[in-house]
Amino acid sequence: MSDATPFLLPDTGEPGFGVYVHWPFCAAKCPYCDFNSHVRHQPVDQPRFVAAFLREMETMRRLSGPKTVTSIFLGGGTPSLMEPATVSAILEGIARQWHVPDGIEITMEANPSSVEATRFRGYRSAGVNRVSLGVQALNDRDLKFLGRLHDVADALKAIRLAREIFPRMSFDLIYARPGQTVETWEPELRQAISYAVDHLSLYQLTIEEGTPFFGLHKAGKLVVPDGDLSADLYEATQEITAEAGLPAYEVSNHARPGAESRHNLTYWRYGDYAGIGPGAHGRLSRGREKLATATERNPEGWLAAVERDGHGMVDQEILGTDEQADELLLMGLRLREGVDLARWQQLSGRDPDPAREQTLLEHGFIERLGNSRLRCTPKGMLILDAVVADLAC
Ligand SMILES: C[S@@+](CC[C@H](N)C(=O)[O-])C[C@H]1O[C@@H](n2cnc3c(N)ncnc32)[C@H](O)[C@@H]1O
Ligand SMILES: C[S@@+](CC[C@H](N)C(=O)[O-])C[C@H]1O[C@@H](n2cnc3c(N)ncnc32)[C@H](O)[C@@H]1O
Ligand code: SF4
């Protein structure tokens, strides 16, 4: 995997096969975040983690069988706390287990605060060709409120560097923050668009149970935009990004056509993926069934399990065709391209209930794309869970 590697292989429209590796550590825990991330005050033994990642990959390879990888994603936590040598060893390990063609998308998440030019170049030399930066906000007051360790100047520096070093770059913003209105969000979003290359992830702030924000929210000390304002913010976001040539291809993800994240598409097209590392989940097909894997979330617990058993899986559930049909719908309706109905019918053994589908069509929540695809309208996206629940039963 050299710098001369052509980028990117064109999207075939197929679900693909992804490999996800989870780095579970962060420099500090953000008060809104319930992802599997932990702060350690002692240095993390990276070679020991690498050895465990490689062992767990062998187990996952046995479960997946031989596969051609279409994307790799190093997520977290904060993977940019890894040394470039760690990243290199992980990518080499993946290529020993599965076929990794030149030019596939290899994404790594990075925090603007843990970013260093030397590390970025090291990641690039290791084979990373897409970076996803957690910028979160473009004003210092909100960055502070979100508990971030970086300020806007750090974020802009990281964006500039990422654009220089990686062929592809995206960044995340969190909106629908306390006190935010369409009037204050719009200039921030336009500024973000001006820094974006071809991909942006825009998430509405979710108050997750068990986080410090949850406690504050419950105590009435943190007030988030109500349903109407959230919907207005969402709609404004859709319009502004579409006008700027970065339309949503999924609920929260925006890209110039052709620059969608392949890895994300694999999830939403309900493809297979191997999940490696603490708290990673995976989906591996076996004939008509799919194996849903989930590993131990605690990093040291996961490490001990892998060293003992060759994997850290705590859960292996076999999904039958009905469960797969539900998941296919749940994931596929998030996408602008919608869900492939023939695949859904093959799995569920039936058509969508005509009366329910008709009602949703008449209310403008869903639409048909020819005979073969069904998708949510922008209005339907606002009540996605209800639409899925209605169609699935
Ligand atoms: C798991 S984080 C990993 C990225 C990296 N550690 C960072 O924070 O910069 C992935 C993204 O999820 C989003 N996210 C995490 N918690 C969220 C929440 N409660 N509401 C909305 N978005 C959230 C943030 O935009 C974040 O960049
Ligand atoms: C919220 S998304 C952000 C993606 C980013 N916006 C992009 O476009 O590349 C990524 C986060 O989801 C979680 N994640 C993704 N795939 C996962 C998997 N297979 N197992 C466990 N967590 C996963 C990780 O916490 C990761 O940081
Ligand atoms: S948002 Fe990112 S940096 Fe913050 S705790 Fe979660 S994973 Fe770590």
TrEMBL record:
Keyword Lipid biosynthesis carried by entry: no
This protein's UniProt keywords: 4Fe-4S, Chaperone, Cytoplasm, Heme, Iron, Iron-sulfur, Metal-binding, S-adenosyl-L-methionine
GO cellular component, one term: cytoplasm
GO molecular function annotation: 4 iron, 4 sulfur cluster binding; coproporphyrinogen oxidase activity; metal ion binding
Protein name, per record: Heme chaperone HemW
Task of the protein: Probably acts as a heme chaperone, transferring heme to an unknown acceptor. Binds one molecule of heme per monomer, possibly covalently. Binds 1 [4Fe-4S] cluster. The cluster is coordinated with 3 cysteines and an exchangeable S-adenosyl-L-methionine.
Pfam families given in the database record: HemN_C, Radical_SAM
Radical SAM core domain ranges (all copies): 11-247
Superkingdom, taxonomy of origin: Bacteria
Cell compartment(s), UniProt: Cytoplasm
Family affiliation: Belongs to the anaerobic coproporphyrinogen-III oxidase family. HemW subfamily.
GO aspect biological process, one term: porphyrin-containing compound biosynthetic process
Sequence intervals crossing the membrane: none
Major location (coarse): cytoplasm
SMART domains: Elp3
